[in-house]
Design the sequence.
């Protein structure tokens, strides 16, 4: 009798601008997995942009949609999933995230700011001092990211391909078969 083992699910967490989508696509390609970005999936399912959802429903409405999408996506296997930066702020999501191997892409605030300062599709940063907001979010969320992470990779200093290589090495070193 053949036993069907589920394929691993790799979940990328971290702040906006850490490179979750870029790294996630490359990692999925390297592993032959399917890539999903939870924010893109929220937009696809709802037929509305993240900015519009924030404007009409606020962050609470967005987080409710995000939780539903995370529950569905984390039930898939053979997947690399890039999550939104704030997904970890909802305790219910922790249960869903723990269905996979959690990789924290840790980016310092200066790196985040450099990568996001011109992006108008980041509702939380459409304020007078986005760098201060990034600092506040980092201070609040970094301990949660660290608590949830199976592996932490510091971003901003290596090429995306090198980071994917480092992730694969760490998975191997941790005896995680993908």
Sequence:
């Amino acid at each position: 009798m053949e036993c069907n083992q589920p394929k691993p699910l790799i979940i990328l967490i971290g702040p906006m601008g850490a490179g979750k989508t870029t790294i996630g696509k490359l990692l999925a390609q390297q592993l032959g997995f399917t890539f999903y970005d939870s924010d893109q999936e929220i937009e696809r399912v709802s037929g509305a942009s993240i900015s519009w959802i924030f404007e009409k429903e606020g962050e609470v409405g967005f987080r409710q949609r995000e939780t539903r999408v995370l529950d569905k996506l984390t039930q898939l296997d053979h997947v690399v999933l890039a999550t939104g930066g704030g997904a970890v702020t909802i305790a219910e999501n922790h249960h869903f995230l723990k269905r996979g191997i959690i990789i924290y892409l840790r980016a310092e605030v200066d790196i985040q700011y450099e990568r996001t300062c011109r992006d108008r599709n980041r509702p939380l940063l459409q304020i007078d001092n986005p760098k201060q907001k990034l600092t506040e979010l980092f201070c609040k969320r970094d301990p949660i990211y660290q608590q949830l992470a199976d592996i932490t990779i510091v971003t901003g200093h290596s090429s995306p391909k090198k980071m994917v290589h480092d992730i694969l090495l760490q998975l191997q070193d941790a005896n995680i078969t993908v």
